[in-house]
UniProtKB/TrEMBL annotation:
InterPro entries on file: MAPEG-like_dom_sf (IPR023352), Membr-assoc_MAPEG (IPR001129)
Gene3D superfamilies: Membrane associated eicosanoid/glutathione metabolism-like domain
Annotated Gene Ontology cellular component terms: membrane
Keyword annotations: Membrane, Transmembrane, Transmembrane helix
Protein known as: MAPEG family protein
Record organism: Roseivivax jejudonensis
Subcellular localization(s) per the UniProt record: Membrane
Residues annotated as transmembrane: 12-36, 56-76, 82-105, 112-130
Pfam family, one: MAPEG
Amino acid sequence: MLEDPLSLLCLYGLWVIVTMVAQVLAAAAQVGLVTLSYPRDNMPPLTGVAGRLERALRNSVVALALVAPPVLVLALRAPEGLAPAGAVTLAMQVFLVSRILFVPVYAAGIPFLRTLIWAAGFIATLWLYLQAL
């Protein structure tokens, strides 16, 4: 499972769901479930861990939207062998590990480490696009 780029993509999707649940729980602890059940037009901004988890979730959804196209293109081309399979898997493993580490580091508010972890995932995504083109 950890050697198939499509499975790794699905695992990342599951991680985004875990992040979403953590964000909702943190928001509920801060503003209450009643506030979360209403339209959020007048909801106060989330702060601290809840706010950082909200931003980490937003960033994670964007990362998912960016990484999915090259992975799907490469998977469709796999029978033709246009990209080195081991390198594609490694790029997805780097992406997945970096994105899993990103959320708790962001939530903890660790500045420079968060950026380095983000950059590793972003570089892996760029590499996947270069292979897919």
